[in-house]
Amino acid sequence: MSVSGQKNAGAPDREPPIRRVVVVGGGTAGWLAACLIASRVDAACNDPVSVTLIESPDIPTIGVGEGTWPTMRGTLEKIGFAEADFLAACSASFKQGTRFDGWATGGANDRYYHPFTAPYGADRDAVMRWASAPGTAGFAASASAQPAICERNLAPRQRQMPDYAGALNYAYHLDAGKFAHLLARHGVERLGITHVSDHVTTVERGGSGMIDAVVTRDTGRIEGDLFLDCTGAAALLISGEYEVPFEDVGGILFNDRALAIQVPQLEDAPLASQTNATAHQAGWIWDIGLPERRGVGCVYSSRHVEEGQAREILDAYLAATGGTGSASAQEARLLSFRSGYRERFWEGNCLAIGQSAGFLEPLEASAIVMVELGVEALLEDFPRDRAALVPRARRFNALMRYRWARIVEFLKLHYILSRRIDPYWCDHRDPDTIPARLAELLDLWHDRPPLAADFSAIDEVFPSASWQYVLYGMGFVPPLASPMRHSSPGAVRALAAQRDQRERSLLASLPSNRAYFDALGTPPERQKVTTH
Amino acid sequence: MSSHAILTAEDHRDLRVRSEAAADLGDAVMGCLTFPDEFRRVQGEFPILFRLNPERDSFTALAMFGLEDGENLFLGESGWTATYRPLALSIQPFLVGRDASGDGPGQVHIDMASPRIAHSDADGVRVFDEDGQPTPYLEQVASMLGELDEGYRASAAFFDALKRHQLLQPMAFEVPVEGGATNRLVGYHAIDEERLRSLDSVALAELHEAGHLMPIFMALASLGHLATLARRKVQRMDRG
To answer: Which of B38, B101, B147, B165 is most buried, with most CB under 10 Å away?
Structure first.
């Protein structure tokens, strides 16, 4: 028996149990974390865990992102939303991946997809099948039916399917403000979260270094056993109180500014199935279509272009995509950010969740998924009492550091294979800016494709399939035949036939995004019963 | 009212058909037509019974889903709950048509008055793709229609043989329902097991050579599923 086990057996009440979770900060991260925890609390147990969320009325929330990862479907189901209600309340649309325009060469036909559905067949087979059939479509279109579905603006599911089931893997684009609002209402009304609208003025620490309470301006002291720092860039607890350093990765990922704007959807314009990410001379532009509006933003490196130039780049994009309406890039909101993450995310009885933990440019929409994964890791191994905090914090920190580092490398991959010649792009290819682990992997991939074994953690944010899509989308030369035999040519051919048949079936059976969302709110078509 | 039309890429380029099983799409039926070549697939889950036509001169075979009119015990809230869905249901709202002469190759017709015709782009499956080529769904329907057509045509010989050997007998099946009442299934015929056992080797050889023996046994074996229907009915009554 372990030492702590003996202690528990001998004196079960010595350590205060973790019963009161206090989330500091609203916004997407705070409300999502609070709802996830509250929805998993076992209300039948003796002394159930309570969740309190303190949201400052003074601080406007910044939508951390409008793109999610497919994990969001499971998250919403756990929290307890019907899918159609969520879609309507958040003006959401389906996201089946990202389309990258102009990243490899900037030329006219420079386009590739990173779809959410993994390639058909095993890691190696999909790549070798594509590589051995020269002159065909790009890797993604060869490996998955999803790019063809995206090209036609089709939805990933049929209306009569059960909630959150898809014919193809998918996530959502959403209005972050509406999403936080929906979570708040559901959290308070259905999940029993206590909502305190007040400003935290001071933090009270006990002898052991743990936070005992936060003091608010009007409500006074709010005690807790576990505190979640969801205060965004302010990082009130993890930085303000615990002074955990921030590890800047600006030397790897140069972007530090974004000009964000919303433009109305043109009438009858198709609703895109993916986030469009269009490269420019010193960064890239996101374009996220919701049913009523598009969110567009120019991400750039202030070291490489001036703000005025960035506004011109955004203006040119808006004009080219026909979506300006009355909006002009002059009205775009300027956001400054630092890319990086904390040295530690869990210190004492405080966990940093959301932007307080780290922030990276919105490429590949990692912000919300990191909230989900962080909270899931906490819930999977929820500490019973204060004594249980230390080993869990150590494990949590190692896990989250691993994840942040992998995301940084994955984002960097998008830049280093480019053949664009602008100074920004050349700087990205400077070996001194490329993480060692990434450089080593690239070396391996000259001889063989990215394999599952390269990314073998549980709940890997970007599995080997994602790396394959970006790697070969960017024009990386696929490996020659291996000296070892890995699968029979017959099996690979059969797989190709299956994939083609699947694509044809999907094209026939999936409705367009527009049709899906126009019909949202009306139940699947029902007609009068005819008797035979 | 039905309104049958020949299916063409020109007229039906953007047509979408709802292929899922639902009561208001016409699946609330107590049985559907089947044919000897399908008996093997049907008998795994449904009883196969026979019914005389109104003129009392020929039989049809039916896969049974319920014990009273409009009752389909295999239709759940989220669709078809059996593994197999008989062809006569799966091909709805399509049917085999022929030109005026009545022979020649079968054509794919569609009942445009069927509730399965989707009136919203948000529902259903396309029949033709953007280029006017049949989709996998239509290919599958066409192949099922072909099989049905051939199966129905070939079944006349089967029913002749059953009549010749007097292998069908009227049957009744009773299920006790709530309040001491019974639900009685009448007006159907089933394979006469006694009669089948008493056939001599010449008759058996003749049936075997014509390919009728196997479907006869399949139909006989399927009668065990009358109990399945009764069990599903009781379960449904308990729930509702």
So the answer is: B38
Q: What's the pLDDT at A61?
A: 59
Q: Does A515 touch chain B (CB under 8 A)?
A: yes
Q: What is the DSSP string of A459-475?
A: T-SS-HHHHHHHHHHTT
Q: Given an 8 Å threshold on Cβ–Cβ distance, is A508 in contact with B127?
A: yes
Contact A524 B127 (CB under 8 A): no
Computed over every residue of chain A, the mean pLDDT equals 90
Q: Which of residues 139-168 of A touch B (CB under 8 A)?
A: 152, 158-160, 162
Report CB contact under 8 Å: A505, B137.
Answer: yes
- In the 3-class helix/strand/coil scheme, how is chain B assigned residue by residue? CCCEEECCHHHHCCCEECCCCCHHHCCCCCEEEECHHHHHHHCCCCCEEEEECCCCCCEEEEEECCCCCCCCCCEECCEECCCCCCHHHHCCCEEEECCCCCCCCCEEEEECCCCCECCCCCCCEECECCCCCECHHHHHHHHHHHHHHHHHHHHHHHHHHHHHCCCEEEEEEEEECHHHCEEEEEEEEEECHHHHHHCCHHHHHHHHHCCCHHHHHHHHHHCCHHHHHHHHHHHHHHHC
A513: closest chain B residue by CA:
B122
DSSP state of A213: E
- Each residue of B88-119: pLDDT tens digit? 999 999 999 877 676 777 889 999 999 999 98
Give the 3-state secondary structure of A85-111: HHHHHCCCEEECEEEEECCCCCCCCCE
Question: How far apart, in whole angstroms, are the C-alpha atoms of residue A202 and residue B109?
Answer: 76
pLDDT above 90 (res B47) = yes
* B residues 170..229 contacting A (CB < 8 A): none
Predicted pLDDT at A9: 47
Between positions 91 and 150 of B, the ones with CB within 8 A of A are 115, 118-127, 129-130, 135-138
Q: Give dist(CA B133, CA A86) in Å, integer.
A: 37
pLDDT in tens, A434-468: 999 999 999 999 999 999 999 988 788 899 999 99
Entry pTM: 0.86
Name A97's bridge partners.
Answer: A115
- As a whole-number percent, the residues of chain B with pLDDT over 90 amount to 74
